[in-house]
Design brief:
Blueprint (H helix, E strand, L loop, with lengths): L1 E4 L6 H16 L5 H11 L2 H9 L3 E8 L2 E9 L12 E9 L8 H15 L4 E7 L3 H9 L3 E9 L5 E10 L1
Helix pairs in contact: 1-3
Length: 171
């Protein structure tokens, strides 16, 4: 059985490991080891995640499956994007699952959970960045009804950026 809960600061050690491992699995081959390692050790460290978790604008959830951390999400309500006319849109900044939990429908459950939060907050839509080479994620979001509305670069390091689609789902 899977459970969706809000992580607390006491969960930071597990959340940091989950976030780091999930990013390695999905993006580790997208840049040099040194660049990815620097990104992960700075942006997904317990200290960095603590600051994000304590920022009231960020809404984190994670999912446990059979008592083990499987995936997590981070959304930001009322996060406008230049490409979109509406200002009351939600940014889905992260939706990551460990590879061993792919194919179980867990990502769909966590996605739907976050979508309901956006709908309850009367958001006009949800937008996100997705790495162009993450074909599994692009297909998932297209299946959910997202459309590509632009392009952007995601900074991994001072010397490496990954090309991303900007995708939008109107609510």
């Amino acid at each position: 059985m899977a459970a969706i809960t809000k992580p607390t600061t006491q969960d930071l050690p597990q959340l940091s490991v989950l976030a780091s491992k999930a990013l390695w699995e999905s993006h580790g081959h997208s840049a040099a080891y040194e660049d990815m390692n620097l990104y992960i050790t700075t942006r997904l460290s317990e200290e960095s995640l603590r600051a994000e978790l304590l920022d009231e604008r960020n809404i984190f959830h994670w999912m446990q499956h059979e008592g083990r951390p499987a995936g997590y999400s981070k959304i930001i309500l009322n996060s406008p994007l230049e490409l979109l006319a509406a200002q009351n849109v939600t940014k889905m900044e992260r939706l990551y699952f460990l590879a061993e939990f792919h194919g179980l429908g867990l990502a769909q459950q966590l996605f739907d959970f976050n979508l309901n939060i956006a709908k309850q907050a009367k958001q006009a839509g949800v937008w996100l960045y997705v790495w162009k080479e993450n074909h599994r994620a692009v297909a998932f979001y297209e299946k959910m009804g997202f459309e590509i509305v632009g392009e952007g670069l995601f900074k991994i390091s001072e010397t490496h950026y990954n090309p991303n689609h900007v995708m939008f789902l109107g609510l």
